[in-house]
C-alpha cells in the first residue's frame, strides 16, 4: 500500500424519518437530518469511502444553523490534500483538519477515510464482528411516551430476548415510570434482566437522592446523567453517595483537551461513562476516553446517537475493537422508515454483522 494518498470529498444531506414520535427530554423527534461525507482517491480507483455526520438536535456542540455550510466548506478545503495511510498518523491529521467544535464532522471524516482505505465495503477495522463471527450484546431501548406506549415497548423487548433494558425517564410522572420499572422487576429478577435508566439530566439536585433511593429498591444497574451537566461538585457528591451507580453521558460533551478529560474524571469519579463518538469527536477521542476510564477503574459502554446505519456500523466496529464487557447501546438501526439497508441485524439482544446481507444504495444521495 502506498504511504500517502490524495483525496477529493463531497457531501450529501439525508432526512431520516422516525417510525414513531421519538420522545426525549429535549422534545419529540419526528425527523432527523444527517449528512454523508464521501471521499475518493486516484490511489484507490473505483473505491468510495462514506462517513456520517449527524449532530443531535439541542445537544451536540455542532448543532448549529450553519452546519451544512461548515461541511461544504470542509469538503472544498480538503479536496486535493494528501494524507498518510498509517492509521494513527491519519487520525492525527484529521484532528488537525477538523476543529473540535465540529465533533460529528471529525467522526464522519475518520470513518470515510478508513472505509476508503479498506476497500469501500464499509469495513473499518479487521475484527471478528465485521467477519460476522462475533456479536455485540446490546440493551433494548425504551423510548419516552405515555404509559401505554412505554409498556408496549417493554413487553416487545422482553419477547425479543433482550436481557438488558434501558428506559428513558423524566418525561412522564416519576411514579408512573417507577411502576413501569416495578412491572419489569416483578416478572424478572436482576439475575434475569438488567435494568438501566437514563434521566438525561431531568432530576433537580434537591430531588435526585430521594429518587435514586427509590430506584435502588428495584436493583437498577445504573442511571445515566441524573442531573444536568456542568454541575461538577453536585455530580461528584451524587457519585459518592448514590445507591444506584451513575454513568456520565452529557457531562462529556464539549470536553476536548486531554487535561480537561482527566480533570473531569478525577473530579467526579463516576462508576461509568457513556461514549457517543458523534458527540465526543470521533474515533480517536473515544479511544482516549476509554483509556483514561480504564486507567481509573471506570466502566464504560458505547451508544449510538440516532445515526443511520452508516454511523451505527462505524460505532459498532469501533466498539468491537475495544473488547467491551457490558451491554452496549447500539440498537438504533431499526428506528427509521428510510434507513440505508445494511448487514446489521439484531438477534436475541445481540447486534450481528450478517455477511450474507448487502448494503443499500448510498451514492444516490449525491448529486452527480
What does this structure look like?
- The protein is an alpha/beta fold.
- It contains 12 helices and 15 strands.
- The chain has a 7-stranded parallel beta sheet. A 3-stranded antiparallel beta sheet has the order 2-3-4. A 3-stranded antiparallel beta sheet has the order 6-15-14.
- Strand 10, helix 8 and strand 11 (246-248) form a beta-alpha-beta unit.
- Helix 9 (258-268) packs parallel to helix 11 (283-295).
- The mean pLDDT is 94.
Radius of gyration: 20 Å
Kindly estimate the percentage of residues that lie in beta strands according to DSSP: 15-25%
What about the largest sheet?
A: 7 strands, parallel
Number of strands: 15
* SSE arrangement, N to C: EEEEHEHHHEEHEHEHEHEHEHHEHEE
Helix content: 25-40%
The class by helix and strand makeup works out as: alpha/beta
Oligomer: single chain
Number of helices: 12
Can you list the strand order of the major beta sheet?
7-8-9-10-11-12-13
Distance N to C terminus? 29 Å
Average of pLDDT: 94
Shape: globular
| Poorly predicted tracts of residues | none
Topology:
Elements: E1 4-6, E2 8-24, E3 27-40, E4 49-53, H1 67-78, E5 82-84, H2 87-97, H3 103-117, H4 128-131, E6 136-137, E7 140-142, H5 147-159, E8 164-168, H6 174-187, E9 194-198, H7 205-216, E10 222-224, H8 232-241, E11 246-248, H9 258-268, E12 272-275, H10 277-280, H11 283-295, E13 299-302, H12 309-321, E14 344-347, E15 350-353
Short description:
With 368 residues, the protein is an alpha/beta fold.
Structure characteristics:
globular, single chain, alpha/beta, 368 residues, seven-stranded parallel beta sheet, three-stranded antiparallel beta sheet
Amino acid at each position: 500500500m502506498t504511504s500517502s494518498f490524495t483525496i477529493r470529498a463531497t457531501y450529501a444531506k439525508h432526512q431520516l424519518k422516525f417510525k414513531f414520535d421519538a420522545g426525549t427530554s429535549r422534545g419529540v423527534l419526528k425527523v432527523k437530518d444527517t449528512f454523508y461525507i464521501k471521499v475518493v482517491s486516484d490511489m484507490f480507483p473505483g473505491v468510495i469511502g462514506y462517513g456520517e455526520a449527524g449532530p443531535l438536535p439541542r445537544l451536540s456542540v455542532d448543532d448549529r444553523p450553519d452546519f451544512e455550510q461548515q461541511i461544504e466548506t470542509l469538503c472544498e478545503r480538503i479536496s486535493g490534500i494528501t494524507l498518510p495511510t498509517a492509521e494513527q498518523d491519519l487520525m492525527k491529521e484529521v484532528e488537525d483538519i477538523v476543529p473540535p467544535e465540529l465533533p460529528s464532522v471529525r467522526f464522519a471524516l475518520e470513518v470515510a477515510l478508513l472505509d476508503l482505505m479498506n476497500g469501500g465495503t464499509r469495513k473499518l477495522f479487521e475484527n471478528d464482528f465485521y467477519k460476522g463471527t462475533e456479536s455485540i450484546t446490546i440493551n433494548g431501548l425504551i423510548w419516552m411516551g405515555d404509559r401505554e406506549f412505554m409498556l408496549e415497548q417493554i413487553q416487545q423487548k422482553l419477547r425479543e430476548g433482550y436481557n438488558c433494558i434501558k428506559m428513558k425517564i423524566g418525561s412522564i410522572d416519576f411514579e408512573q415510570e417507577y411502576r413501569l420499572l416495578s412491572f419489569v422487576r416483578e416478572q424478572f429478577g436482576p439475575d434475569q434482566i438488567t435494568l438501566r435508566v437514563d434521566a438525561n439530566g431531568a432530576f433537580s439536585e434537591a430531588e435526585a437522592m430521594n429518587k435514586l433511593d427509590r430506584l435502588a429498591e428495584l436493583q437498577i444497574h445504573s442511571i445515566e446523567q441524573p442531573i444536568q451537566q456542568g454541575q461538577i461538585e453536585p455530580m461528584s457528591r451524587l457519585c459518592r453517595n448514590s445507591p444506584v451507580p451513575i454513568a456520565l453521558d452529557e457531562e462529556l460533551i464539549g470536553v476536548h483537551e486531554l487535561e480537561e478529560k482527566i480533570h473531569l474524571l478525577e473530579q467526579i469519579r463516576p462508576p461509568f461513562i457513556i461514549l457517543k463518538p458523534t458527540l465526543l469527536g470521533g474515533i480517536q477521542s473515544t479511544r482516549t476516553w476509554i483509556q483514561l476510564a480504564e486507567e481509573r477503574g471506570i466502566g464504560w459502554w458505547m451508544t449510538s446517537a440516532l445515526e443511520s446505519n452508516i454511523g451505527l456500523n462505524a460505532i459498532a466496529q469501533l466498539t468491537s475493537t475495544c473488547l467491551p464487557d457490558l451491554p452496549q447501546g447500539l440498537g438504533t438501526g431499526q428506528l427509521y422508515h428510510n434507513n440505508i439497508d445494511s448487514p446489521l441485524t439484531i438477534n436475541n439482544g445481540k447486534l450481528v454483522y450478517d455477511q450474507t446481507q448487502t448494503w443499500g444504495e448510498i451514492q444516490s444521495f449525491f448529486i452527480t
